[in-house]
């Protein structure tokens, strides 16, 4: 009997448990009415972006005489040197460097040539010059590293490559042939040797004023305005020499003494592509060259014997012009030259 009662009680409890579960699963209490308050946002990260400098390198190439390096591009035209064109041994390469550093200041630029430190710049101008005289033919590698004033910024870099070839062949203007001191008439050669007048003033020889009048202007006719020639810009020219004594006399407008073969070179304007030179004696033109490249050397030398190439003794004037491809020539430069007597 007791066992039967216990079973009846357990049955009643098992039936009551589902009802209790249903009571616990009733509707949740309603939230109080009113505006919702948003949850506070998570704090933002405090990391700062750093600006890595970017580097741009712009190379320019100049001849040993300081003129822009020109290259033929076909059709009789020339172009100023462009990246990818070769560089001659002896040319000068100017590297102009630019760096973008964001809000920071550009602190320094470090330049390396062929993996060797070349120079470090800490202020403008941000440019350097590379002399290729001591570089071997072949490819050469330039690296530029830019450092900004931001201590957290990495170093930026840029590179460029150039190719160096053997020195440009120099075309030397030949000395005047013996006939340059002569005039040809009806097939016969008659030497023009006129004594130059002298005075007794301190034993100084005087040269006729007309001896320094310029010879006929080469190329196309130059327009005039009020008697003044209007030369085209970029066709200027000046005489120079590697001999210090000759260079000094040229700078002082003095008389250059030629006792041995003497070389003259010229510097020309940006638009010049050729030169012409002429020799005058006593107001008469005794020699005129063909058009020559701007890097040609002019060689003057005394005549040592009857059969040698050279100039007769006495004073001559050397005139040079620079011209372009349209046969326009600029204002001339002139040097007085004293040819030594035969030894």
Structure at a glance:
By secondary structure, this protein is mostly beta strands.
Give structural notes.
The protein has 343 residues and is mainly beta. It has two domains: 54-165, Immunoglobulins (Immunoglobulin-like, Sandwich), CATH 2.60.40.10; 172-184 and 202-339, Sandwich (Immunoglobulin-like), CATH 2.60.40. It contains two helices and 23 strands. The chain has helices at residues 2-24, 244-251; strands at residues 54-62, 70-74, 77-80, 87-88, 92-100, 106-113, 116-121, 127-131, 138-148, 156-165, 172-173, 182-185, 188-191, 224-225, 228-229, 237-240, 255-258, 262-268, 274-281, 284-288, 297-300, 314-323, 333-339. The strands form seven sheets. A five-stranded mixed sheet has the order 4-10-9-6-7, with no helix packed on it. Strands 17-23-22-19-20 form a five-stranded mixed sheet, with helices on one face. The chain is elongated and about 115 Å long. The relative contact order is 0.13.
Strand content: 35-45%
CATH class of the largest domain: Mainly Beta
Largest sheet: 5 strands, mixed
- Give the averaged pLDDT, no decimals: 77
Cα(first) to Cα(last) distance is 164 Å
Instruction: Look up the CATH topology of the largest domain.
Output: Immunoglobulin-like
- Taken together, the total number of domains comes to 2
Number of helices: 2
Q: Helix/strand/pairing class, anyone?
A: mainly beta
| Global Rg | 43 Å
Indicate the percent of residues in helices: under 10%
Strand order in the largest sheet: 4-10-9-6-7
